Structure to design on (148 residues):
């Protein structure tokens, strides 16, 4: 008696192996991720947007160990607002980068300002303790010609 299920298992393993060697759609979206904006629906009104991204990861540039953080972005928009799904994908793009806590927070701030030019913004990285060290990094930007 032969096992008729043996052949499909081999085919499935082959298919899985082929799929694993291809880039997944989520990985492609992350790799292509950039900060996208849309027009502020209330230009002229000063209001705060607070976003928390609790699944930030990057790699220590010295040890290669993973670092985990919650990124908090608080900003007052001017003419543009950042689209949240694009922000999520952009933040996920850090997961395989070898970058320090300080540089990651400052780079996020620089990219955020370049994308939406807010009146003001604070980016805070609250990194999970590792080796008995808890790090919180904050970087700020204020638009010099803020009219509001």
């Amino acid at each position: 008696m032969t096992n008729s299920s043996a052949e499909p298992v081999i085919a499935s393993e082959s298919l899985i192996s082929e799929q694993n060697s291809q880039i997944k759609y989520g990985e492609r979206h992350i790799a292509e991720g950039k900060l996208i904006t849309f027009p502020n629906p209330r230009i002229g009104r000063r209001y705060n947007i607070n976003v928390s991204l609790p699944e930030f990861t990057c790699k220590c540039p010295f040890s290669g160990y993973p670092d985990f953080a919650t990124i908090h972005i608080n900003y007052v928009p001017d003419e543009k607002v950042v689209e949240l799904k694009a922000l999520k994908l952009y933040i996920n793009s850090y997961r395989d980068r070898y970058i320090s806590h300080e540089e990651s927070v400052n780079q996020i701030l620089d990219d955020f300002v370049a994308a939406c030019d807010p009146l003001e913004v604070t980016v805070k990285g609250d990194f999970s303790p590792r080796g008995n060290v808890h790090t919180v990094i904050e970087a700020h930007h204020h638009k010099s010609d803020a009219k509001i």
Q: What stands out?
A: The first strand starts at residue 37 and ends at 39. The chain has a mean pLDDT of 88. The radius of gyration is 21 Å.
